[in-house]
Design brief:
Elements lengths: L3 H15 L8 E12 L2 E6 L2 E7 L2 E2 L14 H12 L3 E9 L5 E5 L2 H7 L4 E2 L8 H16 L13 H7 L9
Parallel strand pairs: 3-6
Antiparallel strand pairs: 1-2, 1-5, 2-3, 4-7, 5-6
């Protein structure tokens, strides 16, 4: 007869190898905001460590992306909105990493504020901790569109993911 640890240890090691610990609970830390790249990406610093953070639940228009009904740069408007909402420091909540090595997270719940103020769209593949949180974001997006706030005041935007795929020549190849 095998001892319980002889069975549980291999199972536990499989669990630790296959599961990112941020899947269990998000990591929180205080960071300094160094730079805003666009409407959904910032550079943060903690101690001597600097990293890009991509807001995981939103998709902001790209630099140079036009509004649907008139000329203008929707990406620049979204970036200004994010700069206005962020302070010099904030509480970073980390959910994981994306395929480009950026941290997926949120700083001071800014993702929801951007949706609520009409400065960004909801990311189509966003992950939420529960249905209540998902519906909260969806309600905020619907209200922003209905009240024609910020981006939606200018006729709205094409979903940034779709615009990126149509306009690949605007972007240099990422490594």
């Amino acid at each position: 007869m095998r001892a319980p640890y002889q069975i549980l240890w291999p199972l536990l090691s499989l669990f630790l190898v296959r599961v990112d610990l941020t899947d269990l609970w998000p990591i929180r830390m205080r960071v300094e905001i160094l730079r805003v790249y666009d409407g959904d990406t910032v550079l943060v610093k903690r101690g001597s460590f600097e990293s890009k953070v991509r807001f995981s639940r939103i998709d902001a228009p790209e630099k140079g992306q036009p509004f649907l009904s008139q000329d203008g740069d929707a990406g620049a408007l979204s970036k200004k909105c994010l700069q206005h909402l962020l302070g010099p420091t904030g509480e970073l909540e980390i959910y994981g990493l994306d395929m480009y090595g950026r941290i997926l997270g949120d700083v001071d719940q800014v993702s929801f504020k951007l949706i609520e103020k009409g400065c960004a769209s909801l990311y189509p593949y966003a992950k939420f901790k529960d249905q209540h949180e998902k519906y909260r974001y969806l309600r905020a997006l619907i209200m922003a569109k209905k009240l024609k706030l910020t981006l939606w005041a200018f006729g709205g935007i094409e979903q940034p993911k779709a615009w990126r795929s149509k306009n690949k020549h605007h972007f240099r190849k990422r490594i």
